[in-house]
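Checklist before submission:
- one chain only
- standard amino acids only
- sequence pasted in full

Submission:
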Amino acid sequence: MKMELNNETLEVDFNNPIDLSLTSRVKNGFKAWYVDEITINTIRNEEFVGSVNEGGAVNFREVLINPHGNMTHTESVGHISSEKIYVNDVLKRFHFIAQVITIVPTKEIKTNANGQQEVNYTIELEQLKNKILPNTEAVILRTQENYEVLAQKIYHNTNWPFLKKETASYIREMGVFHLLIDQPSVDKEFDDGKLLAHKAFWNYPNEIDEKRTITELIGVPDNVADGKYLLNLSMANIENDASPSRPVIYKIN
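Returned file contents:
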């Protein structure tokens, strides 16, 4: 199917969607930021039970989630600002020209303030420089192999790979509005609240960017080649800084 997007004519294969969201489960699900998996509870009282298996007419459950910790999620600058910028207000359309880029994080050894050696894995500017194609609206960073294990991965205290400040700034400067990554955050797990990559991508606090989003905890299947795709970025219509989301990409012929 042919479509016009961002002043470009695209021939898109809509018959083979590639889902980048990870399945959230009650047991053995992925989690980060020291939260547990999602919780699903049956609603019940003296006159009603929300379970067909228990004799109820319907299944009627409540779901407790933490978008940042146990779901593929998309966030707005409201995640780091005092202003209430709801992510469901940011997107005015849901299809974007996207590029999948695989990065092998760079091992970095440095001495911390306590005189101890610290090992980090970083996404450096030089690894992305001159790789982002013209007219790219969304960059999808694949930093992990073994896609099959991501839906059960526990990220607590793993010091995952993160973007350097200048890398996030460069992505913004290249005209990218949506940044997606297969880690719990674009920033370091323990960074004393600096959030350098978040702030650089949103140019915060210099401005309140109500156009850009960051999507974290995605999974890019191993057999998906680097290159250009059409991205559909859909999310739950919730007034919050972050929302559960389901990014899906389609191959561009």
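Reviewer check: The first strand starts at residue 2 and ends at 5.
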